[in-house]
Amino acid sequence: MLSDKLNKFVLDQKICDSDQDNNSLFIAAINGLQQGACCSRCILRFMGCTDFSLYGPSNKILEQAFDSAFPPTSKIQVPLCSVCLGTLQFAEQDEIIGPIVNVFEKKPYDTRSYCLSFTPPISVMTRERLMYFHLQQWLQTHVPELAQKWEDIITIDSKEPMRYLVSQQFTALSDRVFEPSSPLRITVVLEHAPSSDEHLFLTSTKKQLLVVRKVRKKGITKIVGTSRPVVAEALKNLEAEEARVLTTVPPVPSSEKCTVKINTLHEAGYTGGRYLKFSRECSQTPWCVRGKKLAEISVSECIVDVLQKHHQCQAVKFTTAGREDANVRMLGTGRPFYCELVDPVRPVLPAEEYAQMEAEINESSTKDVVQVRHICPIQLKDTNLIKAGEEFKRKTYQALIWVSSSVTDEMVKKCNDFGRQGFEISQHTPVRVSQRRAMMERSKQIHELSMVKVSDKEEDARFAVITMNTQAGTYIKEFVHGDLQRSLPNMASILGVEAADLLELDVTNVDLVWPPQSN
Ligand SMILES: [Zn+2]
């Protein structure tokens, strides 16, 4: 019997010296809370009850059990609890679970666990404090010699039994498990417009416990300085007498129910791979100036849409290991990249689906511009390899260059002899980026440099193809044309000619094991 369980709970508390005193104190408290229009579940909270199974029966059954265990002297009937405003009182009804089920129909997350958090109306904080003042006074009046003892009892936060009740239901309905550490979070936001400003009386206290400011933004006036921790602190310092002067104790009942909003968010997932870019008119990310797109298409656009569709995520954040200019091709094994999947309904896909995404990208209308390789799931920790490797990665380039005098076999031999062992160059911040970057001198390592003639034809005499393996961050264009002698040595000084210039550049390799082989 539920009423027996309630009786046993009270008996077990033993906060007074005798069972009889203990009983008298609790009966007085229950009566006082009922007089204040407190629902049965909130009464359990004020009694410090952490056995959440007692909160399980419906409000009506629980109320009957209370009446039979502790017959009330008199009772007032109000439809809505003055403290929780119905949020805990009717937590098992359709108002909360219905919208959650609806959201999961639209977003059928693969993850079979979930965690649950609640944002009750802000007025519930104030109302709980005011009800406590009412209870204190009631006990002082009805059991003056025992009233002090009630201070040993800690009121349970309404979110805890609410989480218990709603998770029980959702687990049964959805066949998912409640796990506090689940990557999938459901947030239930409860709002009660009629009481949303109730805490503002705290600005009128003698010590001004709450200080607020009005801010006008985009034509809307907002009150700032009323975050929950700030209001909680103000309520803690509020005195009962002052509360009685400035507002109503116990809090006034309301007949209007709360509105419910459900937010879901899954931890980010990560998918990695390498991309190749065959065009000299394609930037890495959409490149806009004053809202106008400069390049026709970007690498990220060719990739993210397919990933977003398969993972069913809200957004995709595209990150690469370094970058090449729009007019530089990315060939060879491709450039490592990863995508952060924001709120993915399907964070990890079956193995064959990664191959399918790869095929979709590589067979799409942009297949002559961008292709991908090795698309696979990666871990958050793997993304550090791309970020941290920035300074240490080596890159291999191939470039078509122009030389101011005809390329001779001696010149080719000179370059290859010099370049075989590798060498160090000194580069000042290039003129072309000097507006964005601090001026400084850096030394960079060219690990290898080699050169071949384009052909033996007369018209090709001033052209050559160079291949070089360099330290990350080397300015290749400047190394070739010398940047007004700000890059030394440079191609002209190595070849012993007046000038050299870079015509076309390809990246042929980015030295990074990626995606990590463990995947
Ligand atoms: Zn309540």
Outline the structure in words.
By secondary structure, this protein is α+β, with helices and mostly antiparallel strands. It has 3 domains: 2-215 and 224-265, no CATH class; 268-390, 2-Layer Sandwich (Alpha-Beta Plaits); 392-510, Alpha-Beta Plaits (2-Layer Sandwich). The protein is built from 15 helices and 20 strands. It has helices spanning 2-13, 19-35, 40-46, 59-69, 94-106, 123-142, 159-174, 228-236, 240-246, 299-311, 351-362, 383-388, 409-420, 476-481, 491-495; strands at 113-119, 177-178, 184-191, 213-217, 220-224, 259-266, 269-277, 282-283, 288-289, 292-293, 297-298, 315-320, 328-342, 370-378, 394-403, 423-428, 441-453, 463-471, 487-488, 500-510. The two termini are 56 Å apart. The mean pLDDT is 91. Bound molecules: zinc ion. The site of zinc ion has 8 residues, from helix 3.
Describe what is shown at a glance.
The protein is α+β, with helices and mostly antiparallel strands and 519 residues long. It has helices at 2-13, 19-35, 40-46, 59-69, 94-106, 123-142, 159-174, 228-236, 240-246, 299-311, 351-362, 383-388, 409-420, 476-481, 491-495; strands spanning 113-119, 177-178, 184-191, 213-217, 220-224, 259-266, 269-277, 282-283, 288-289, 292-293, 297-298, 315-320, 328-342, 370-378, 394-403, 423-428, 441-453, 463-471, 487-488, 500-510. Helices cover 32% and strands 26% of the residues.
